[in-house]
Amino acid sequence: MSSFVDSAQIHVKAGNGGAGSVSFRREAHVDKGGPDGGDGGNGGDIWLQASTNVSSLLRFRDFPHRAAENGSHGAGKKKHGITGKSIVVEVPVGTVVKDLNSEVIADLDVEGKKWLAAKGGQGGRGNTRFLSNSKRAPSFAEQGEVGEEFWYDLELKLAADVAIIGFPNVGKSTLISVISAAKPKIADYPFTTLVPNLGVVQIGDRQDFSEFIVADIPGLIEGASEGKGLGHEFLKHIERAKALLILIDPSPNAPLAPEEQSRVLMKELGTYMADLLDRPRLTVISKMDSADQREIDELLSRGTAAMAISSATGQGVNRLVSELESMVRAGRKVQEVDEDEIVIHRPIPQNFQVVRDPDGAFRVKGRAVERTVAISNITTPEAIDYIQTRLKKLGVDRALKRSGVREGDEVRIAGFSFDYQESM
Ligand SMILES: Nc1nc2c(ncn2[C@@H]2O[C@H](COP(=O)(O)OP(=O)(O)OP(=O)(O)O)[C@@H](O)[C@H]2O)c(=O)[nH]1
Ligand SMILES: [Mg+2]
Fold this sequence. Notes:
Oligomer: single chain
Bound molecules: guanosine-5'-triphosphate, magnesium ion
CATH topology of the largest domain: Rossmann fold
Number of strands: 18
Strand order of the largest sheet: 10-11-9-12-13-14
Distance between the termini: 64 Å
CATH superfamily of the largest domain: P-loop containing nucleotide triphosphate hydrolases
Shape: elongated
Order of helices and strands: EEHEEEEEEEHEEHEHEHEHEEHHHEE
């Protein structure tokens, strides 16, 4: 568990929609029958799903690209294209998805939770769909819509139930090695631990079994919240812990007196994230065998710590574990309620917007608008007629006027450009 990857990028490209078909029925006695071009198939979607099958984001570092299948094109005789296969990408439970502006857009914190990362393009409509009283033989069809394509940042926060926090050399790693199977490096100098260690603590027997995960967070020091020491990089791993275990070094040669240690640690946690100060926490004196029992008793009676332990002799360790377990149990109940409140939003606005290109031309961006213009044969007057009517309905005309467009200005939509006319 010493090296786990906790951030990666993923590139998702959903399938493109297939093009609609332009086709006419062939009948023995009719020169040109009615339109019978089928629709293109929809492109496949890409979903991310929280799964305990995977535990790191390593795979995305090696190869970040995931793509879904395109829809196939429509054909004559009203034959519709085939829908592209969607794919489900498994990510570890606890993965947070951010857009490239660091905005959180999904929190895959529960096993099985699924999130649509890229929507497949809709298939284009075949010319059959454009049949109307005024258009008996529509000679155009829609192109398939391009599937969505995004880069996302993935972040996996350590799913620790308890974070062990304390100054360097206070005995964090030793404790985790005693209460779990984790085997971190232990040594008598500060900053021995360079990455967080995870350990699973198991208690009880088969009838009454429970377990929780403890993280040994590398030594915090004063200024950690501003990036000093190793602190900043690892403080984020504390965010999800249901309980905090604060270890205090009672020995006379500790760099700070016990009260000071506690004060500085609280200050650093609070500066990093004010919420952490409301997190259930237990302050415990570590290495009790190395200090005078009278001093320990005094610290306890002053309320500097709730209890004392020694990982070396095992004193107090069982009691500590059962305290932690009940704190975690209580924390889990609270979290279960919270989970429903998480808002998951999609990155792209569904409407359109008018922007100026560097050369001054007007550009209209948005799915519905771009899709309207994606008609396969834009050179026919009836296709252009159709496009103009649709754009007007979507409000593009009005929006362009509001943006200050004038007669003759260039307007770009998708891959096409038009000269703006008042009647447009
Ligand atoms: N006497 C005594 N020594 C201990 C106890 N727990 C840890 N130590 C010793 O204290 C030193 C530091 O222990 P670590 O567990 O590496 O401390 P740490 O908090 O993980 O330190 P960093 O990783 O540097 O932040 C080691 O020499 C341990 O053997 C204890 O309960 N009693
Ligand atoms: Mg350590």
